[in-house]
Design a protein that fits this description.
Layout: H1 14-27, H2 34-45, H3 58-89, H4 104-113, H5 120-125, E1 132-135, E2 142-153, E3 159-165, E4 174-177, H6 178-181, E5 182-184, E6 187-188, E7 202-208, E8 213-224, E9 236-241, E10 247-250, E11 255-257
Antiparallel strand pairs: 1-2, 1-5, 2-3, 3-4, 6-11, 7-8, 7-11, 8-9, 9-10
Helix pairs in contact: 1-4, 2-3
Length: 260
């Protein structure tokens, strides 16, 4: 990823987002009242967890609740549309509109927020057990997600999440389209499982040159099998990268499989 400065936007911590989600579900439209938002903004700004971060204004809290309401409306509308379409086609109803099945992390966080008997710290920690990777718009490479910071619904109905990439600081955070740029993390290929890679398989492969070293999408076009033990693979995998159609011969250590 390059070091180009991204837009300056308000970001809530995971703990703050979870608390607002819980309040939204509990209070509904009451959570959008100015006094309510002012009190919550003051609470967040005075929290020890926000040391070193910018203060939160009531407008920012209010906007979050408005976006959350819009998200609910879009979700409900999509569910109805999917239900009608399924009825016409005599097919099962799709219960994952707007790529919600790719938003498992946020969904589980919201569900955790509804269980008041569970400590907040434990609810937030649940996110750390979820493994995702996101596509960076800066270099078209995939990076592991360290945390989901926020979400928003665009006017077109598309859902985006603000992610922090593993190993990168906050100035490299990006808004990622959930449908196109968020997925379950790829699985590093180990020598004992090299037989699982077949010609035509979708892979995530490491490519390096003088300018960059990135993990990019590719497809296996040839596999040269070699005899080896379970600890050391000597097979050669010929892949074609989606980004520029470049072909390369890679070793097992440079390849990740996509989850089935």
């Amino acid at each position: 990823m390059d070091t180009t400065e991204i837009e300056d936007v308000c970001e809530f911590t995971l703990a703050e987002a979870l608390e607002m989600e819980h309040l939204y579900r509990k209070r509904g439209k009451e959570s959008q009242q100015q006094k309510f938002c002012e009190e919550l903004a003051t609470k967040f700004s005075c929290s020890a967890n926000r040391n070193g971060n910018s203060i939160i204004t009531w407008d920012q809290v209010h906007t979050w609740f408005l976006d959350r309401q819009l998200f609910s409306a879009v979700k409900s509308k999509s569910l109805v549309a999917d239900s009608n379409a399924a009825t016409k086609q005599h097919a099962p109803i799709n219960t994952s509109p707007i790529a919600l099945k790719n938003l498992v992390a946020l969904s589980k966080a919201w569900a955790a927020a509804e269980r008041p008997k569970k400590p907040k710290a434990e609810r937030v920690a649940e996110l750390s057990d979820l493994i995702f990777e996101a596509l960076s718009s800066k270099d078209c490479a995939w990076y592991d997600v360290a945390a989901f910071l926020n979400f928003r619904v665009l006017y077109c109905g598309e859902l985006e999440v603000r992610v922090r990439f593993c190993g990168f600081s906050h100035d490299q955070d990006e808004w990622v389209n959930v449908r196109r740029g968020l997925r379950e993390r790829s699985i590093p290929l180990v020598p004992s499982e090299c037989h699982k890679v077949k010609v035509g398989d979708h892979l995530l492969c490491y490519r390096a040159n003088e300018d960059h070293a990135l993990y990019s999408d590719a497809h296996a076009i040839k596999v040269e099998r070699q005899l080896h033990d379970k600890d050391d693979c000597t097979c050669i995998f010929v892949v074609r990268f989606e980004y520029d159609n470049a072909e390369a011969e890679l070793e097992c250590s440079c390849i990740c499989r996509r989850p089935s």
